[in-house]
Amino acid sequence: MSKRASQENQNNFSVNDDASNKLKNFIQEADEIKKQLRQETLSQERLRQKYLGKNGLFNQLSEKITKISTSERKTAGLLLNHLKENLTDYIENLADQDKEPLAQQNKIDFTLPGIKPRVGHIHPISQAIEEITHIFEKIGFIRVRYPEVDWDWYAFESLNMPQEHPARDEWETFFVDQPPHPEKGKVVLTPHTSNGQVREMERVGEPPMRMINIARCYRRQQDVTHTQMFHQFEGMVIDKNINIGHLKGTIDYFAQQFYGKEAKSRIRPFHFSFTEPSFEVDFSCNICQGTGFIKDENNKNNKLKCNFCKSGWHEVGGAGMIHPNVLKAGGIDTNKYTGFAFGWGVERSYTLQKGLNIDDIRLLYSANLSFLEQF
Ligand code: PHE
């Protein structure tokens, strides 16, 4: 039995048998109204309207009193008083849960607005990968994918880093416990060298080629600024007459697309065994626009050192003209073709873009939703 039905149920009205049929019908109608009210599932407000409102059931019945003969009208009037009291009592004293709107009583009201499902979003690093891919596709680069577990040949040896070469120490590599390939050597998790280069030369054969390889790479290092796995995007262009101007132009183009129109890039001499000459690549800080200083809000004549970059620039990665030994390893005729290559981390590029000083880069891969939901 519902809570309402179990609420105090008053006796029905009654009169003696001598009463006229009109009065009897009148009484019966009043009884019906009482009964009907006890079956209702409407909210308190709706019940008030339906039973006690201007055009409510009570008023409809009271209008019929004029049809009752004057001798019986007093009885009918008392009955109406009684009915009104009864209806009012019942409606005003409804249990608290019955006063709630329908939706909260587990009764379905199809007219109520629905409950919005929680919608997630793509991981910030996947968003960055999509954006970077799109930027390079616009200038004719093709995104390629190569194995994450690869032979030493592609990861090191073909990149002008023979076995036992000291430069290999810079890449703390994970070796996979597998018998080595007779020519291609040991099996490694791809390091952040440039392992897509020679594979791409083998795949395309004859230049021109323009590729972007955005892939995971691995190193044996883990702390607040390093994760054992991160994403590197390496780009490569080989064609006739390719020179450093093309390289610098491509890097500038990327900087402006990714960091905004004001962004600039700078290259500084460096050493990588797979490029010659080699450079380190810096981007202007997009918090202080490369000046190293930001406005002092409290004193217009003063400048504050930019805490994000400290110098106006952020170092992001490396680049260079592909070393002839690497071109030869990929079967490219070095008398006819030259090329450039570059590479840097997606994670770093992304955090710089957002002006994020993430004090622990590992948060990006922590599955900590309160952190990730901010992006
Ligand atoms: N892979 C190099 C690094 O980890 C960058 C690089 C890529 C340099 C391609 C030259 C060519 O810093």
Please, what is the average pLDDT?
A: 88
Q: What is the total domain count?
A: 2
Over the alpha carbons, how many angstroms does the gyration radius reach? 40 Å
Counting DSSP E segments of at least 2 residues, the number of strands comes to 12
Question: What's the architecture of the largest domain in CATH terms?
Answer: 2-Layer Sandwich
Q: Strand order, biggest sheet? A: 1-5-6-12-11-8-7
Q: Which parts are unreliable, with pLDDT below 50 for 5 consecutive residues or more?
A: 1-10
What profile does the largest beta sheet have?
7 strands, mixed
Please bin the fraction of helical residues.
25-40%
Structure, described:
The chain is an alpha+beta fold and 375 residues long. It has two domains: 3-105; 124-372, 2-Layer Sandwich (BirA Bifunctional Protein, domain 2). The chain is 34% helix and 22% strand. It is built from 13 helices and twelve strands. The protein has helices at residues 3-6, 21-39, 44-52, 57-63, 70-92, 96-99, 124-137, 152-155, 196-204, 244-259, 324-329, 346-353, 369-372; strands at 142-144, 149-151, 175-181, 185-189, 209-218, 229-239, 265-272, 275-284, 293-295, 303-305, 313-322, 338-345. The strands form three sheets. Strands 1-5-6-12-11-8-7 form a seven-stranded mixed beta sheet, sandwiched between helices. It has a three-stranded antiparallel beta sheet with strand order 2-4-3. A two-stranded antiparallel sheet has the order 9-10. Helix 2 (21-39) runs parallel beside helix 5 (70-92), helix 3 (44-52) runs antiparallel to helix 5 (70-92) and helix 7 packs across helix 12 (346-353). It starts with a helix and ends with a helix. The protein binds phenylalanine. Residues 192-194, 234, 272, 274-275, 317-320, 341-343 line the site of phenylalanine. Phenylalanine binds next to strand 11 and strand 12.
